[in-house]
Design brief:
Length: 1246
């Protein structure tokens, strides 16, 4: 995985705004009753770009950013004007921003006691609750690497009282940004991300942002102040403001030329950003009126410039539809559950409380010191009447001052509230990941533990030293009252800090309130003498009062005090005995009616009330409902409007392809075919030349970035013969993208006649060549409506066209209706895709097929060329296959439910069969890359089955769950530099140690698929004598010392990670033996059938891909006045390819059916020869089709990329299929030898 390969699917998005193509705003204005802050600000930022909003202090940068981010714009005394939208038509609202965007505050909101890695991990847990722990960990690691924080990963962020130095300011800024984009939002707003950083740190921050914008198609908008030239040069575009007016908008590289043109040239040696600020900052001009006139002149120069005209034309369109009037997609709740939030926040708070001295450590030592102070001040007070007042003083002092000292918690509480402001629903709008409820509960849970420990220590130290009632019950009641006192005091601190989130303010008010409670609590002034106002107002909500009175009763109610031989100061029933009853003392001082149980309940009520008040004064999490999802309302243009955009340096370069409008202004210089051909077609309908030189994959790749609208919303006229579905479905077509007029009704009627599908003539329409990629269907629901459209239920993606007006034939569970699936090009898919009856495929196979195709078309196919060129691909694709349950089903056995809880959505485990694996492998192979398919299934599909079938049970339980879920990877190591198909003569040795507990493995393995990527190696070794009877299989783990791998440079399958593996004295436990010692050859033989079947499936589908690509090309390429397909010699090539592909596939299905019916041993004996012969057949057909397709494409298949990309790549892959798994000559010989042996065993005599 590269440093920027992050799975962006994990960010929760709707199905309609899954690719953000642009952000636009037009004539944004903002004013208060006394001042105009912004005036007519406009801009357009396409996907993958980063915009700098530049201006001096007070120019309106942050105001504009807050308006765009939908923050704090609800004040009744402000006025906002203008339009904001994404994707050319979706109104930008708070819901849209929360759905696809994030906002990074100017100030870093981080917990100083956490490490960098922990900070990102907790951010991932909160933002991505549905992502597995392994994927979250990988994302964190990737972000650390991408933002240059790997070395600081385990360093604490740092606090004022940190015991060791934290990270730098620039690193903190990068951590803040990484936390915000960990969920891979499509839209990122940053308020002065370089504020307070030096030029080097600023450059690093913006550089990482630029990389992310490019790699993941993000739109990033930053307000920025005084950037260095190097930093400024990293931005794609800039928007310059002065006193709320727009001075410039455009590409950074064009700024200098623009200012030169308006008479404000950049001086020699002056940075462009510095110049922009110098000429627009009039704050220090002596003449205010002159300054305003200067700004107005520059604003007028901009509004009359060609750049402003181009921007205005781009943005002028019908007002975007209100989000509330747009169609909705299905709802998805993007929040974690309340309990998940509590658990995550509790874990984080525990770490913070443990490490942060401001949280509890300082308070612990403060309270310990207080306990010692009390114990030594009120030391050993005797139970006498002279100690009554001292005991009362000790009770008051302990409770009142412990609660007062809780102000020490304010810094920690404020830090939590700052974090909540960013992550939760704090003031100004946060990410909405959790609300105050989760924050309060988690903090309360942690507080119970820490405060409980504190009061026990305080009680142990002070209670016995003072001489309170010497009973266990008395002690624990004392501890209880102290705990309630501290917990209530902490709740008060949290409440006041939430209301006044400023340290000095919170400290002052908390101290005042505690002082007030001390005054009215009943100690300083007896309750009987307290002023009526105070008695009936604050005294009833004074938590200190209830604690004090509870402690008083605990000490005095059941105790007597000696009169010390003197006259008792209180008349009481015990006076004759020389004692004072404690209850009498309570009665005399107004505490005689204390009800402990009631007082505890009142205290808990006060605590709960403060918690609820804290919760109520802040916003709650915004739930994502169906009203928060939007569909795109693209702009529409007339052809005349498009025709006016022919100049990339002026009005822009637009073209039309299939009635869709694309802006190629920026792309023109990057076009692989050069700029001239684009200029020749600028402003025109370029559908015909586009399809002449490109295939559908190119359109899919660039559409999100370049598409800006449509022409009248009509259907295409360039690509006929595509079967389309109704509004509830998507195109089932993908017909040959041939230019020219649509198929005539006569042609369509002929198609309908041949297909014997009434109404099909109406269903053949003009449409762009798309292939549907919806979710797995409920099979057999398609019908042709009277209008000719293919009607489907919403769950159906690829449905069978049925005769108009006819009823669908009822089916049994093990039957499937005839379905039409794919492009319908003849022989481009197996016959059961195109309406043929088949005894092999059931409804779940149809559903699985649609599920895989959607994945391939959206997650794999658009990126194959890039991955092949990079000779690798993101590991996330493999992990997704594991998470979807497909890997577990590709091992040539029944679904291994014993070792995994992962399940496939389309197929229950009990229905899984070999045909499911055929469907997965076949559909994956449509991507047209042996390297990609081998990366996903190559090593795993041949390395894991031996362990699953013959491995040690404890080993299987240890490793298989992670392997089957895609977290770990496998490969098979058999081939050696001097032993390929001749497996029996391999030389890698494994010798047992003297104690018999380990094997020591030495040797080399060559051409090992996925070796670089794998965690586990299934290795063939020699443990005995020569020949097949001395071979064993061992499971070697990559972490074992002595295992080294290096990538090999090969002719084909570049993305697969072909590896040279060396084992140098690798110590392997005997438990890792697979099967029995010296019986490994048999295990290898049982594995060969499954390996070769995989090769056959892939090779034959690759042959189809070559055939299909060439067939589509032949429909549009003309030679000598005819399309290629109209030449008999070309049709002969296609017929020759098709007959061999179909024959091979029919034989493949027959063999797989036999595998389904036979046991492993029978299949190994009886099918070994058949499979070997079929392997040779499939690779020969693959080679034939690759060659013939290359002939059809001509020079296009000789160069990498472009229309012939798949054929060129597959031609290089041919030898990787003809040689591995047994070369063709060996396979054909094996076919005959095995065939003869089986025949003899069945009674044949020869």
């Amino acid at each position: 995985m590269t440093s920027l390969d992050i799975d962006i699917e994990a960010k929760p998005l709707t199905t309609t705004i899954h690719a953000l193509s642009s952000l636009s705003w037009h004539n944004i204005s903002f004013s208060t009753p006394t001042k105009q802050i912004l005036t007519s600000i406009s801009a357009h930022v396409p996907r993958g770009e980063i915009l700098a909003i530049l201006g001096s202090s007070g120019s309106g940068k942050t105001t504009l950013l807050n308006i765009l981010a939908q923050r704090n714009q609800n004040g009744g005394k402000t006025t906002i004007g203008g339009d904001m939208w994404v994707n050319g038509g979706v109104r930008l609202t708070g819901e849209v921003v929360r759905e696809v965007g994030t906002y990074v505050e100017q100030e870093d909101a981080l917990l100083g006691s956490l490490t960098v890695r922990e900070t990102l991990e907790f951010a991932a847990r909160l933002a991505l609750p549905d992502l597995s722990r392994a994927l979250r960990a990988e994302r964190v690691t990737t972000l650390l690497r991408a933002f240059g924080l790997t070395e600081q990963a385990d360093t604490q962020i740092g606090t004022a009282l940190a015991r060791r130095k934290g990270i730098s300011g620039g690193q903190k800024r990068r951590v803040s940004v990484a936390c915000q984009i960990i969920s891979m939002p499509r839209l990122v707003f940053l308020d002065e991300p370089t504020s307070g950083l030096d030029s080097a740190a600023s450059r690093e921050v913006i550089s990482h942002l630029q990389s992310f914008a490019r790699a993941h198609g993000m739109i990033i908008v930053c307000s920025i102040h005084q950037p260095s030239s190097a930093t400024f040069g990293l931005f794609d575009k800039t928007l310059l403001l002065s006193r709320g007016k727009q001075i410039y908008f455009g590409r950074v590289g064009e700024v200098e030329e623009y200012f030169h043109r308006i008479g404000k040239p950049v001086g020699k040696g002056v940075g462009i950003a510095d110049h922009m600020l110098d000429v627009t900052n009039v704050d220090f001009w002596g003449d205010e009126e002159e300054g305003n006139r200067h700004v107005e002149e520059m604003a007028n120069a901009w509004s009359s410039s060609p750049e402003a005209s181009t921007l205005e034309h781009l943005l002028t369109a019908p007002s975007p539809a209100s989000a509330s009037h747009l169609p909705r997609s299905s709802s998805r709740n993007h929040h974690s559950t309340f309990w998940h939030q509590i658990l995550t926040l509790t874990h984080r708070t525990l770490l913070k409380s443990y490490r942060d001295p401001l949280a509890y450590t300082i308070r612990f030592f403060m309270y310990l010191a207080l306990a010692l102070l009390m114990g030594t001040t009120f030391l050993r007070l005797p139970a006498t009447q002279s100690s009554l007042q001292s005991l009362t003083n000790a009770i008051f002092f302990g409770g009142a001052f412990m609660s007062f000292m809780q102000v020490a918690a304010i810094p920690s509480v404020l830090e939590d509230l700052v974090m909540w402001g960013r992550e939760g629903t704090g003031r100004g709008g946060g990410e909405g990941l959790y609300g105050p409820g989760a924050l309060l509960v988690s903090g309360g849970v942690v507080g119970v533990g820490f405060l409980g420990g504190i009061v026990v220590v305080v009680g142990v130290v002070s209670y016995w030293m003072i001489g309170f009632q010497p009973t266990a019950v008395g002690f624990w009641k004392y501890v209880m009252w102290l705990f309630l006192d501290l917990y209530a005091a902490e709740s008060l601190v949290v409440l006041i800090s939430a209301i006044i989130p400023i340290f000095v303010g919170a400290l002052t008010i908390t101290a005042f309130v505690n002082g007030l409670f001390m005054a009215v609590g009943g100690f300083l002034v007896s309750p009987n003498q307290l002023n009526v106002f105070w008695r009936y107002t604050f005294r009833y909500i004074d938590y200190q009062r209830y604690v004090f009175e509870g402690m008083m009763k605990n000490e005095f109610a059941n105790r007597r005090y000696s009169c010390e031989g003197q006259r008792c100061i209180y008349d009481n029933p015990l006076a004759g005995e020389g004692y004072i009853s404690g209850q009498t003392f309570l009665d005399q001082n107004g505490y005689g009616n204390v009800n402990e149980g009631k007082w505890v309940a009142v205290l808990l009520g006060i605590i709960l009330g403060m918690k609820l008040l804290t919760w109520s004064i802040h916003p709650q999490p915004r739930a994502y409902t169906p009203n928060n999802h939007f569909t795109m309302a693209p702009k529409t243009f007339t052809k005349d409007e498009v025709a006016s955009h022919k100049d990339p340096s002026g009005s822009g370069l637009w073209i039309i392809v299939d009635n869709e409008v694309y802006d190629l202004t920026k792309f023109a210089d990057e076009h692989p075919g050069g700029k001239k051909i684009l200029l020749r077609n600028a402003g025109t309908d370029a559908s015909k030349p586009f399809w002449k030189y490109h295939n559908q994959a190119i359109l899919n790749k660039y559409k999100a970035k370049l598409h800006i609208g449509s022409v009248g919303g009509g259907a295409s006229s360039a690509t006929p013969n595509t079967i389309v579905q109704s509004k509830t479905g998507t195109s089932t077509g993908g017909a040959n993208p041939a230019p020219g007029k649509a198929a005539s009704s006569k042609d369509s009627a002929e198609v309908a006649k041949i297909a014997k599908v009434p109404g099909a003539a109406q269903s053949v329409t003009s449409s762009s060549p798309k292939t549907s990629s919806a979710k797995a269907p409920a099979p057999g629901k398609g019908t042709l409506s009277g209008s000719g459209e293919v009607g489907v239920t919403p769950a159906t993606s690829y449905a069978a066209p049925m005769p108009s007006g006819s009823k669908s034939t009822p089916v049994q569970d093990d039957e499937a209706e005839i379905q039409y699936f794919g492009d319908m090009n003849p022989y481009a898919d197996p016959s059961w895709y195109q309406g043929w009856h088949s005894p092999y495929y059931k409804p779940h196979h149809h559903a699985l097929r649609a599920e895989i195709r959607e994945f391939v078309e959206t997650e794999i196919e658009p990126f194959v060329h890039e991955w092949d060129e990079a000779k690798g691909m993101p590991n996330t694709i493999y992990e997704k296959m594991g998470q979807r349950g497909w890997l577990a089903g590709c091992l040539g056995v029944k679904y291994p439910t014993k070792y995994t809880d992962v399940r496939c959505k389309s197929v229950p485990p009990e229905k899984w069969d070999h045909f499911c694996e055929l469907v997965i492998t076949d559909e994956l192979s449509r991507c047209g890359s042996g390297g990609v398919v081998w990366n996903l299934l190559g090593g795993y599909g041949i390395g894991c089955p031996p362990v699953l079938k013959f491995g040690n049970e404890e080993v299987k339980k240890r490793i298989l769950p992670d392997v089957l879920s895609g977290k770990k990877r496998f490969c098979l190591c058999i081939t050696e530099p001097d032993a390929g198909s001749d497996v029996a003569n391999l030389v890698t040795s494994a010798k047992k140690t003297a104690d018999g507990k380990h094997y020591i493995v030495n040797g080399e393995k060559k051409w090992i698929t996925n070796g670089l990527l794998s965690d586990y190696f299934t290795v063939a070794v020699r443990t005995g004598g020569p020949g097949m009877n001395g071979i064993s299989l061992l499971l070697i783990e990559k972490t074992m010392p002595g295992v080294t791998t290096r990538q090999m440079k090969c002719q084909g399958v570049w993305a697969s990670g072909t590896t040279y593996v060396e084992f140098d004295d690798v110590k392997v436990p005997v438990e890792n033996l697979i099967g029995k010692e010296n019986k490994g050859f048999k295990v290898i033989m049982t594995n060969f059938n499954h390996e070769r079947i995989g090769i056959i499936i892939q090779a034959n589908r690759f042959a189809r891909v070559c055939y299909e690509e060439a067939f589509k090309y032949a429909q549009k390429r003309k030679t000598f006045g005819k399309k290629l397909i109209e030449h008999p010699v070309i049709r002969d090539k296609f017929a020759n390819m098709a007959r061999q592909i179909e024959a091979t596939h029919a034989n493949l299905e027959l063999v797989i059916y036999q595998m389904e019916k036979m046991g492993d041993v029978e299949a190994m004996l009886r099918l070994g020869g058949a499979v070997a012969g079929l392997k040779a057949q499939s690779t020969k057909v693959f080679e034939l089709c690759a060659r013939e397709a290359s002939q059809v494409f001509g020079g296009l298949s000789y160069s990498r990329g472009g229309q012939g990309d798949k054929v060129e790549r597959l031609y290089r892959d041919v030898r990787a299929y003809a040689i591995p798994g047994g070369s063709e000559e060996i396979m054909q010989d094996l076919m005959m030898r095995q065939g003869m042996k089986v025949a003899q065993a069945l009674g044949a005599k020869f």
